[in-house]
Specification:
The protein has a single domain (14-109), classed as Jelly Rolls. Helix content is 0%, strand content 36%. It has strands at residues 14-18, 22-23, 28-32, 39-42, 54-59, 69-72, 85-87, 93-98, 105-109. A five-stranded mixed β-sheet has the order 1-3-5-8-9, with no helix packed on it. Strands 2-4-6-7 form a four-stranded mixed β-sheet, with no helix packed on it. It is globular, with a radius of gyration of 13 Å.
């Protein structure tokens, strides 16, 4: 039934500090440091996903207005659109859950 980030901070969540292009994996909680440059986080390939898989991305340095964080969809839709997502609001936090082939990744928290 999918893999997810629990609210209790259990071992299933993997905290990653990222400051350049990165290929996300399910259960990542990504602390994105875009203070030096804009970069892209690529979501897992859609054929490897299960419904309810979750990834969270946090602009940890509050710099995404200047240096955008691009979320590359990697074959799945984001919010039912065939477009990448751009984080361009300082200190933003976006939690994405895979809902299946029809709608793809949906934003479930910010």
């Amino acid at each position: 039934m999918g893999r997810y980030i629990s609210t209790t901070g259990t071992a299933s969540t993997v905290l990653r500090e990222v400051n350049s292009a990165y290929n996300a994996v399910v259960n990542d909680r990504i602390l994105a440091d875009c203070s030096g440059t804009a970069f892209t986080i690529t979501m897992p390939v859609s054929t490897q996903l299960l419904v309810n898989d979750v990834i969270q991305i946090i602009d940890i340095t509050g710099s995404s207005t200047t240096n955008n964080i691009t979320i590359a969809r990697n074959g799945a839709k984001i919010q039912n659109l065939s477009e990448d997502l751009t984080i361009n609001v300082d200190n933003a936090s976006v939690t994405l859950m895979y809902s299946g082939v029809t709608y793809g990744w949906i934003i479930i928290g910010s």
